[in-house]
Design brief:
Helix content is 23%, strand content 35%. Strand 9 and strand 10 form a beta hairpin. Helix 2 packs across helix 3, helix 2 packs parallel to helix 4 and helix 3 crosses helix 4. The protein is elongated and about 80 Å long.
Length: 367
């Protein structure tokens, strides 16, 4: 079983601690994506797992074997890099075979393995070319083939698609997902691209300043962000976040702020009188209505209209807070028009303003 266990992994450069205390278990065959902004530590953690960075503290196990101090070649991992790292003077066949030849694998076995990965990745027509004669997508396939041919226990991908254009990224996402279904190799994949994370991952590990903010399936992280950081990071465009004050009302609770009063039952949130909270609502969850309508409204004057095809993104100021909302393009307003949107309780998120944690009460939490 090629599972991975990270126990209290720590990384320091001198006195600077960049990964303070990283704990994670990755199951056999699982596809886990490390997601986060630049500088959050995701590539550093991946390189510690690969053996390309020394581990300052903690323990790392792969396939039930402690590998904390082992050389990269002894860990049973293969890594695919952002920059492909191909040898320009070698043919594609020799690039793919290079690692096995260093290990003195017999040539007949190398040929057999090459035939398998070349067929799987569609590299047959370019097998005798040099890397400079290939497109970016083809070069990335070669890098993946070079990793696959080692038949590793674990695949590690470090932002492998970031050098490709949007169309090629979408195509390579599909290829990587297809390969994982075929090979079922335990995989950790690093990216800052939400689309890659959402479409590839069994679980996402969302990182911030070397710490885990949340771990979960893509749908779970999108629909139930655990912290303000997660809420603000996941989703394009980002979730609207509005500071509010909680007050009791005859029918439950009232949220006041951003030039609005939002009435809710509050049954699924852990709320207190006069609590300072942040209301989160995604642009797609705001429902356009008439500016003079009754109900829970966010309203203002449109100062941004972005055409996205079927839908248009509308921006306005509610009180002193920026709000974005999607509307069908056929109903889009013009800049300067008054707009209003209904806030539905079922679509909102509430976070503690001071601590940043979600106020959602998990079923059976006992509140």
């Amino acid at each position: 079983m090629a599972g991975i266990i990270c126990q209290n992994l720590n990384k320091k450069y001198g006195v600077t601690e960049v990964v303070p205390d990283f704990n994670l278990e990755v199951s056999d065959h699982e596809f886990v994506v490390f997601l986060g902004p630049s500088g959050c530590g995701k590539s550093t953690i991946l390189r510690m797992i690969a053996g390309l960075e020394d581990i300052s503290g903690g323990s790392l196990s792969i396939d039930s074997k402690v590998v904390t101090d082992l050389e990269p070649r002894d860990r049973g991992v293969a890594m695919v890099f952002q920059n492909y790292a191909l040898y320009p003077h070698m043919t594609i066949r020799d690039n793919i075979a290079f690692g096995l030849r260093r290990l003195k694998v017999p040539e007949p076995e190398i040929d057999k393995r090459i035939d398998g990965v070349v067929a799987m990745l569609g590299l047959g027509p370019v097998i005798n070319r040099k890397p400079t004669e290939l497109s970016g997508g083809q070069q990335q396939r070669v890098a993946i083939a070079r990793a696959m041919i080692k038949t590793p226990k674990v695949f590690l991908f470090d932002e492998p698609l970031s050098n490709l254009d949007a169309k090629l990224r979408a195509q390579m996402r599909f290829e990587i997902a297809r390969l994982h279904k075929q090979l079922r190799t335990t995989t950790i994949y690093v990216t800052h691209d939400q689309m890659e994370a959402m479409t590839l991952a069994d679980r996402i590990v969302l990182l911030n300043a070397g710490r885990i903010e949340q771990v979960g399936a893509p749908q779970q992280i999108y629909e139930r962000p655990a912290t303000l950081f997660v809420a603000g990071f996941i989703g394009t465009p980002a979730m609207n976040l509005l500071p509010m004050t909680v007050e009791r009302s005859a029918s439950g609770w009232k949220l006041e702020g951003a030039g609005a009063q939002i009435g809710i039952s509050g049954n699924v949130f852990d709320l207190k009188q006069d609590q300072q909270v942040v209301l989160g609502v995604r642009p797609a969850d705001l429902l356009a209505t008439k500016p003079n309508a009754d109900g829970n409204l966010l309203a203002g004057t449109t100062d941004m209209v972005e055409f996205h095809g079927d839908h248009t993104l509308v921006g306005f100021a509610a009180g002193n807070v920026r709000v974005n909302a999607f509307v069908p393009s056929r109903d889009r307003p013009a800049e300067g028009d008054e707009v209003a949107f209904t806030v539905m309780e079922a679509a909102i998120h509430l976070f503690d303003a001071a601590g940043g944690h979600s106020l959602f009460k998990e079923p059976g939490a006992g509140h």
